[in-house]
Amino acid sequence: MKVNIEIDEKYKETCITIQTNEWTEELEEIIQVINRRKKERLFGVEEEQTVLLDPNDIDFVYAQKRKVFASCKKGDIEIKKKLYEVEEILVPHGFMRFSKSVIGNLNQIQRFELSFNGNLCVYFHSGNKEYITRKFVAKVKEKLEMGGK
Q1: Rounded to whole angstroms, how far apart are CA atoms 71 and 1?
Q2: For residue range 68-92, what is the model confidence (pLDDT) as tens digits?
Q3: What is the mean pLDDT of the chain?
Q4: What is the per-residue pLDDT across 18-36, written as a single tens digit (0 to 9) for each?
Q5: Domains of the chain by range and CATH?
Q6: Contact 89/40 with Cβ under 8 angstroms?
Q7: Which three-class secondary structure string do you get for the chain?
């Protein structure tokens, strides 16, 4: 891989351009490293207290009745953000869209089963389970084959 860095005062902010003929795992890792630099914290509300959520402890995040919840081993914790805002924060941590209302942690998946309607039933290490709708099955499988990165 060839790397070119140009430092000049005429640039007001850093801009990264990658030129390649195909997408690779190496590029995926580079993007994740870049995205982690602008790390934003994720807070939840549990028993009227604000708690800091570790992405590694979250199995999936879902929207229900106009509220957003993080499903963890110890239970569900409400997040005071929109689902798309939470998705932006969690994508660099191995999360991916499972359905219109669910974002799942690929790193916490233990196994999955194909259902008769084309959906995938995903089982997490914590014992939780969630479904991936047909629209997102191919993308999730592709991401898992790349190592969940």
Answers
A1: 40
A2: 999 998 899 999 999 999 998 898 8
A3: 87
A4: 888 888 888 877 877 776 6
A5: 41-145 (2.40.50.1020)
A6: yes
A7: CCCCCCCCCCCCCCCCCCCCCCCCHHHHHHHHHHHHHCCCCCEEEECCEEEECCHHHEEEEEEECCEEEEEECCEEEEECCCHHHHHHHHHHHCEEEEECCEEEEHHHEEEEEECCCCCEEEEECCCCEEEECHHHHHHHHHHHHCCCC
Are 83 and 103 contacting, i.e. CB atoms less than 8 angstroms apart?
Answer: yes
32 within 8 A of 146, measured Cβ to Cβ:
no
The tokens for 46 are 């549990």
Instruction: State mean pLDDT over 44-72.
Output: 93
**Looking at residue 35, what is its pLDDT?**
67
Single-letter residue type at 21: N
Whole-model pTM? 0.71
Q: Which amino acid is at 50?
A: T
Angle at Cα 76 formed by Cα 75 and Cα 78, nearest 5°?
Answer: 150
Measured CA to CA, the distance from residue 142 to residue 140 in angstroms comes to: 5
